[in-house]
Amino acid sequence: MRITDSRGTTAVIGAVLGVGALITAFPFVWMVSGSVKPRSESVGHPPRILPREPTPQYFTQLFEEMDFGRYLVNTVAVVLISMTGVVLMAMAGYGFAKFRFRGRGPLFFLVLATMMVPVQVTMIPTYLLLDGVRLTDTLAGVALPGLVSGFSVFLFRQFISTVPTETIEAARIDGAGEVRVFWHIVLPLCRPIMAVQIILTFIGSWNSFLWPLIIATDQRYYTLSVGVSLLNRQIATNPSLQMAGATLMVVPVLIVFVVFQRSIVRGFTLSGLK
């Protein structure tokens, strides 16, 4: 009787979770389906989930008429620049985890305190600083504010704290310098948390909208997220084109997350976060 009840409970839970998954996924399915619908179908009544005559013409229009090729290149460039920050944050985490120096505690507290300040609060002073060094309307100006994150430094510090100090000391005794210790011992051991940070950096840089909109007044430096927002003002009567832009924005992030989701979970677990 207990086995039957357990199976019945499992079936009910599975059914509820399945229905919830379908409801959650429906907007995404609608977006992808709408991106390949002819305009007549996208505005027709009653609406259809799947297109009768799918067409890729709106993706072609995005790249040929709406300059989305430039936006895509800009977004990829911003992502690549931001990736250099992963190494910088790993260095900071290594310093906080394995070095003893005066003021380490208060300095690490200041790093954690930056997590409590909304990014919107720092946008004006950040803009003024970048404007002072003439980095507005540049891809570097778009990427620099997201180069380092207090949360990421915290994750690296937590993970590197679990690395045996004896291993590092043994390398130093063998004559390895600090740079060699970091690159050849600490960094390879940090692969799980590096995978997490690379994925989070990719998602954050790819989806960044407000800062690129503020720092870039020249349309040549717009990113995909800003380009998608322009569709609402430029092509307000073509839902299929808007859906195509949204699909181009969302699908790469979804693919990266699905492929590397195990690394994300493993990295957070090994970092001591529950």
Describe the 3D structure.
The protein has helices at 2-35, 39-42, 57-64, 68-98, 104-113, 123-132, 139-143, 150-160, 165-173, 178-189, 191-207, 210-215, 224-234, 239-270. By secondary structure, it is mostly helical. It has a single domain (58-270), classed as MetI-like (MetI-like fold). Helix 4 (68-98) packs across helix 8 (150-160) and helix 13 (224-234) packs antiparallel against helix 14. The longest helix has 34 residues, at 2-35. The chain starts with a helix and ends with a helix. The mean pLDDT is 83.
Give a quick summary of the entry:
It is built from 14 helices and no strands. It is mostly helical and 274 residues long.
